[in-house]
Amino acid sequence: MKPRSFTLVGAALLSVVPLLSQAQVLRVGLAEDPDILDPTLARTFVGRIVFSAMCDKLLDVDEKMAIVPQLATSYQWSADSKSLTLKLRSGVTFHDGEKFDAEAVKFNIERHKTMQGSNRSGELRPVTSVDVVDPMTVRLNLSAPFSPLLAALADRAGMMVSPKAAAAGGANFGTAPVCSGAFKFVERVAQDKIVFEKYANYWNKDKIHFNRIVYTPIPDATVRLANLRSGQLDFIERAASSDIAKIAADPKLKVSKITEIGYQGITINTGKSDKSQANPLGKDARVREAFELSLDRQGIVQVVMDGEAVAGNQWVAPSSSFYAKNAPMPKRDVARAKALLKEAGVTNPSFTLMTATTSDAQKIAQVVQAMAKEAGFDVKIQSTEFASSLKLADQGEFEAYILAWSGRADPDGNVYSFLACKQPLNYAGYCKPEIDTLLNDARTKLTTADRIKAYEQVAAQVQKDRPIVYLYHRNWLWAYNSKLSGVREVPDGLLRVEGLKLN
Questions:
Q1: What is the largest CA-CA distance in the chain?
Q2: Partner of 474 for a Cys bridge, out of 160, 309, 434, 478, CB 3.0 to 4.6 A?
Q3: How many Cβ atoms from other residues are within 10 Å of residue 85's Cβ?
Q4: Pick from 20-29, 46-55, 204-213, 394-403: least confident
């Protein structure tokens, strides 16, 4: 989006609310346009940023990634860890005035599990039934102990929508979503803006200091920053790492750095569609190994992220207690890469690398292209609008895809849906029953030590098969008006609106 067009959009928005002072409208610049605004179907990081203002969850996470109450005030596991009882917050209503209670929770959990196209079904797979214990108490029954459940309920699987509105909206609910958060949906113009207004009956309304929020997708980081500096925006997510020094030096701006719990990687179509076998990269693990060996992760971190990231080769960072030390990070070895290609009988393999149009993704693609060329790869770059790229990934209409995952409090959220057979986020089409067994085993174990044993076996096999080439774990880089206070630095990368104030 060009700066000029955004200025016009900003002017139009301000004209809609002439009676409101500028301080009463929070203007947020997003790196992408979210996909559908339905927590059951959604899958984008920017969508989670938007949801954080609109859709409260049963639980949340704090700055130290500890589980904290939100719509549930407390929880208790059964002695056998096969049921979870939640006490619910009283006095909460959805944006349509409907009451939030145990029946609403039951509806939402069942919707997450059974709705066609749900991206939450895998996150809640062990939940076999939901009991309404009393109007404000609900019990989730499990087929087996399930360690990731609390973390799932602290994200989209725990988001509550109005049962009445969801039933009426059906598959189109995301075009006019109704939740129970601090702000309610007003309008959305694709690739242009998403507008929310304050919900007057919000249970925690004393901590809400804005009347409206306007989210504007601006893929170009330079343009996002220009609009922040000019006063068109109050906050931008994912500022360019190359701009951080000058942002920090500007007294009118502030910057936050938060180490993410997710990863940046390249997903390879190894079984999603016929395209997997039409290209040597998808067909032969030796070619994928050669591709990985052509890459210098630390070099990518320095060039693309200006050092604002940690190189990695797994779904969690090397500093994580769940990092599998038996699968260490491969070093760049161009000679070995060439030898593997020769062994595979492949000369100058060519493939298309799909990437979103965001600034970071473009830089990654260009650096990967240059590095891989030295080993004999001909990498063609296909730049695609983000939501469109996800649709193509769903359809298997790609060969390799640069895709970041924002991460979850529990490592299961970073790996299960991507590597377990036929899961909704398994864009690679990777499927090995023995991996499914290990991933499910890791879910049922209650200690880190027991879970890491299963993850070590998964990591060892994934390092051989390479359906995903993990690259690094970035810092979330936020820039915002220095008058904006109450910004909380939570590693999930979401902007929490409670307590935010323009002084």
A1: 71
A2: 309
A3: 16
A4: 20-29
In angstroms, what CA-CA distances link 447 with 75, 126, 330, 342? Answer: 19, 18, 28, 45
CA dihedral (188, 194, 198, 204) positive or negative: positive
Residue count (the chain): 503
What mean pLDDT comes out for the span 15-39?
Answer: 78
pLDDT at residue number 306 = 96
Q: Tell me the average pLDDT across 215-221.
A: 96
Instruction: Output b/e per residue, 27-63; b: 16+ Cβ within 10 A.
Output: bbbbbbbbbbbbbbbbbbbbbbbbbbbbbbbbbbbee
pLDDT of residue 116: 95
Instruction: Return the CATH number of the domain spanning residue range 263-474.
Output: 3.10.105.10
Residues 447-459 have a mean pLDDT of 97
Class in CATH terms, 3-54+181-252+482-502: alpha beta
Cα 291 from Cα 298, distance rounded (Å): 16
pLDDT given for residue 6 in this prediction: 31
Domain boundaries, the chain: 3-54+181-252+482-502, 59-163, 263-474
Of 464, 357, 376, 420, nearest in space to 30 by CA: 357
Listing DSSP states for 240-293 in one string gives -GGGHHHHHT-TTEEEEEEE-BSEEEEEE-SSSSGGGTSSHHHH-HHHHHHHHH
CB atoms within 10 A of CB 455: 27
Helices and strands (H, E) in the chain, number of each type: 16, 20
What CATH number matches the domain at 59-163, 3.90.76.10, 1.10.10.10, 3.40.50.920, 3.30.750.24?
3.90.76.10
Whether 59-163 and 3-54+181-252+482-502 are alike in CATH topology: the answer is: no
CB-CB contact of 193 with 46 (8 Å) = no
Do 126 and 143 touch, CB atoms closer than 8 A? yes
Q: Give phi and psi for 48, each to the nearest 5.
A: -65, -35
Of residues 326 and 6, more confidence is placed in 326
Q: pLDDT tens, 380-417? A: 999 999 999 999 999 999 999 999 999 999 999 999 99
